[in-house]
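Researcher: Batch entry, complex prediction.
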Amino acid sequence: MTTPVVSLHPEVQADPDVVRWVLTGRTDSFTEVARSPGAALAALVRDGVLVGLAGGVGWIETTLAPGGSWRDAAATVRRAVTDHVAGTAPRELTEDDLRDLAETVLERDVAPLAGAHGGRIRIVRVAGHTVSVALDGACHGCPAARSTLQDRFQTTLRRHDPRAMVVETAGSAATAATADGVGAGAVSWLPFPRLRGRAGSRR
Amino acid sequence: MSCHGPGEGDVATLGRTTEVALLGSPNTGKSSLFNRLTGLSAATGNYPGVTVTRSRGTARTSSGSVTVTDLPGTYSLEPASPDEDVVLDHLTGRQESETAPDALLVVMDSTTLYRSLALCAEALALGRPTAVVLTMVDELRARGGDLDVTGLSRALGVPVVETVAHRGRGLEDVRELLGEVASWPVALIAPPHDDAAQLSGWIRSVLDSARYRSPRSSVATSRIDAVLLHPVWGALVFLAVMFCFFQVIFTVAAPIQDAIQAVFDHWGEVAANTLGSGFLADFVGTALIGGVGGVLVFLPQILLLYLMISVLESVGYMSRAAFLMDRIMARSGLDGRAFVAMLSSTACAVPGIMATRTMPSSRDRIATIMSAPLMTCSARLPVYLLLISLLVPAEARLGPFSMQGAALFGMYLLGGLASLVVARVFKATLLRHGALPFYLEMPPYRLPTPRGILRAVWTPVWMFLRKVGTIILVVTAVLWVLINFPAREAETAHMDEAQAQSYVMENSFAGAAGKAVEPVFEPLGFDWRVDIGLIASFAAREVFVSTMGQVAAAEDPEDPGAALQQLTYTHGPHQGEPVFTPPTIVALMIFFAFAMQCVSTLATMRRETNSWKWPAIAVAYMFVLAYGAAWIGHEITAAVTR
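Model: Structure tokens for the complex:
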């Protein structure tokens, strides 16, 4: 049996039972994975190997049953995830997907950069393909920081949604989607334990 | 220091330092990093196969010392070659007398990350605490590439540090990383290293997450390569480079050599004045100064040889030469990998033979091992230099070039061609086998660092000095005894000093041995004194030079240099005629080019082939080849010069 080629790699989350399979080859959302998993994934859940499935834009998370070992299960889970991804036709990102994606990207790629300069960036609202952000702290009013952050944010988003736009709005907007404090903190060589934002995670 | 890593692969041991193994492909700057971390010297180079033995050293970190092992460079942990066997055995603790390392530090060249990640996948799958060092990051960025270290670290699940290994930047970060070895994570999920399609999916995904942008091939590099790798121009440049190489050895080294000679001459006078006459004075004058000193004066040439090899290597030219040679080597049935071994053999056949460990086909490997000793090693250099100076006048010129340098170039060419032909013969007869794919890295051209060059030169120069101080000194001393005893005081009582010296030598133990084999070498024009040197040179080729020095000093203690030139046959049909005629010198040079006169090489052959059969074959075929070719050379030269 040949396995279809899907570019993916696992990233361990703060909870070692949870592994996020990052699907860099796919730019669409996998939020439906919990509701309608592929046959192999469904079998793993039925057999009690996995107890949780969750998805987002470009990733699927699998939660191992208590007492299970990734050493034994990883290869099977990888194949099941691969099958699921290969069997799902890509679909257009919804507004919700873009919001999820923007939060993840902000947290992983943009906030550390802002934090390193003593600033903060947060999402105010997502409408259509436009993500409105607010810049606070040291970044506020700094034209260089603004364009750097906005560029980086937008470039990363556009890998998934080519029409995505990042615009800056007034910092006082009340509809901030992200909790405060994401941006602070130094960048460390070991960033993964700090990644707690698993939007859409159903455990 | 106690270790309490997060993973099951972690070995917590009190009372011993943590063992970290450096793992990486050839050419990643791994050995450079090792040298900088440990302060020890391990050879580093631009072509695969330099790091054939692993080295250990201690790296000091903020939280104590860590023992670092530099494993041989390898592209894969799938044991496809004996080299990779060693690596895997070491990593899994199967290596005898060694425990498995506590943690792995994977060194990856950021300019060739795709391939490095394949090895990294296998390393992560071993389930040991792991961290990654990225090298050449400056070069990646300079050539328009980029990567996000944080993203890479997140995707791999292990810490990643970037460095510029060659110049020592980022080194402090690596030290800090080593200090935190106890908290290096174990990859929870092994990358799919045994399935090619899944592995490439994993690698692409990791690279994507790290926003990896591969470097453009540098414009300068590709322009230079267009010439240097051109079938015609490249070959011409290669020959020109090599020709100049040997010109330099003669022209630049000569004044330095004269200076060293002057020092020894001065010591000789001092010794003669203070010690007077007698055995001690003779021992110091002939054995130490004439013999050992006679070898030592070739230090400038040896130094230059290694200096130029290491410059060509670190600039990146050697890989191009290997690429060019690959086409020529194909005719011998071997590939460019064999060239690497052959090239190493121009320094010494021992590392050359060890470099064959990178060859996956055992038949190719043996064919290379059998032919590598024909390459002109640095031990032959003093012999050639002595003989060429007897054969070719220093003033002789070939256009603007020194004729002596051209002759030396010819000797190296002879050795190279002979080894190709021999490899071809072995491949066509005893070792018939299909070829395996060969891939050679073309590193970008780099400016050599003085530090790297110094290290590359110092190691072999120090080994030469040590050889002179040990084996050559001992053998020379033993020969002095064999040449000067029995003393025959009664017989020489009525002779003058020079006559007495000659008489003692002729009737000494060594003289008897030389005369015993004289009939064998008579067709080549060697007399019994040359035969003494020849027998002695089986201990180390350079001993020939020290022996001839002693013989000459015994003949004419006042002017040993002239004595060698004026040495005449003492008996037989040519009695009274000079020994060192062009035919004899040519025969001697050819004999030295082809004969197996190196015990270390035989021992290495035995170890690497795990049998006495191959060393025995080598001794036999090389003696037949040496004798036959020397005779032909003798006859042709005699016909031409008569």
